[in-house]
Each structure stands twice: as C-alpha cells, then as structure tokens.
Amino acid sequence: MLVIVVENAPPRLRGRLAVWLLEIRAGVYVGKLSRKIREMIWDQVKAYIEEGNAVMVWSTNTESGFDFQTLGKNRRMPVDFDGLRLVSFFPVEDKDNVL
C-alpha cells in the first residue's frame, strides 16, 4: 500500500499523481505499486512540489509495518527513536512576540 498526501501542490503535480494513484480526497492519493514506481513517483513529487509539502507512506517490513518520507516546509519532523520512526513537532511560531 502506498499513500501520498500533498498540500498546496500545483495542478500539474496533482495530475501526474492521478495518473498512477487514486485520489480518494483532495490531495490524498493511494495505490499499490512496486518500489521502482514508488521511487519514480517520489522523484516527480520532488521535482514539481514548488512551495507545497508532501508525505509518502508505504507498507514495509519494519517494526511499525510502514515507513515514510516528507518533503517541504511543515511543522512535523520525522525522527528516528531507536529504529522506530516517529514524528516530532516544531514549536508554533508566535508572530506577536517577535523581538
């Protein structure tokens, strides 16, 4: 299983993703593809994401049963915790208390 979620993605990238995957909600694409095709699709995401952000999740033989990659600016940051991939959050930017 492969899931790609994009935010603020240009229409041409969304169109490219729709060729390979099913868009089940706005910006949420799912499918079952080989590793080679998954890597090719992620290369397309990297090339066309512009100012947006993306996350790709796929089934694999790990402790959690999946792995993921992220791309672009986002509050969530992947961290490795003793071989287990978790998500940490950057602090919220407080625009009112700027020095």
Strands side by side in the biggest sheet = 2-3-1-4-5
What's the shape? Answer: flat
CATH architecture: 2-Layer Sandwich
Please work out how many helical segments DSSP would assign: 2
Radius of gyration: 15 Å
Q: What average pLDDT do the residues reach?
A: 88
In CATH terms, what is the fold-level topology? Alpha-Beta Plaits
Stretches where pLDDT is under 50 for at least 5 consecutive residues are: none
What brief labels describe this structure?
single chain, 99 residues, alpha+beta, Alpha-Beta Plaits, 5-stranded antiparallel sheet, two-stranded antiparallel ribbon, 2 helices, 24% helix
Q: Could you describe the 3D structure shown?
A:
It is a single chain. With 99 residues, the protein is of the alpha+beta class. It has one domain: Alpha-Beta Plaits, CATH 3.30.70. The protein has helices at residues 11-20, 35-48; strands spanning 2-7, 22-25, 28-31, 53-59, 66-71, 76-81, 84-89.
Give a brief description.
With 99 residues, the chain is α+β, with helices and mostly antiparallel strands. It has helices spanning 11-20, 35-48; strands at 2-7, 22-25, 28-31, 53-59, 66-71, 76-81, 84-89.
Task: Spell out the blueprint of helices and strands.
Blueprint: E1 2-7, H1 11-20, E2 22-25, E3 28-31, H2 35-48, E4 53-59, E5 66-71, E6 76-81, E7 84-89
Antiparallel strand pairs: 1-3, 1-4, 2-3, 4-5, 6-7
Helix pairs in contact: 1-2
